[in-house]
Amino acid sequence: MFRVLSSSAKTLSNKAVGSYLMGAQRGLVTLQETLAAQISQKQKDLNTLKKEHGNKVIGEVTIDQCIGGARDVQCMLWETSNLDANEGIRFRGLTIPECQQVLPSFKGPAGEGEPLVRGIFWHLLASSDG
Hints:
Elements: H1 2-7, H2 14-25, H3 31-53, H4 63-67, E1 81-84, E2 88-91, E3 94-95, H5 96-102, H6 117-126
């Protein structure tokens, strides 16, 4: 469910993501306010996922894996990034070149260089899933 929601971030327009992030940079809304507004829906989504799929088996775990730090055990729910063998890493559905186009940069506007660290941080923590 969350991987599907995260992939919908691909559909965000450059303008929507850019203005969302730039609005925070101007102090229109704080990161804390943005996250607080999202918590209720995230909790509902997790409860729905748990109710609909809570009893489904997602894999097997051996004693060696438990002792070895859970290596190769796919059991973590995440929605901020995904590593694709062909496209590379995606952050909330955006590839690195897409992030470079939509996030505020060191030179100023989005698309003019490498993104600001705070822009990436904001995008990872608070960007909408669509």
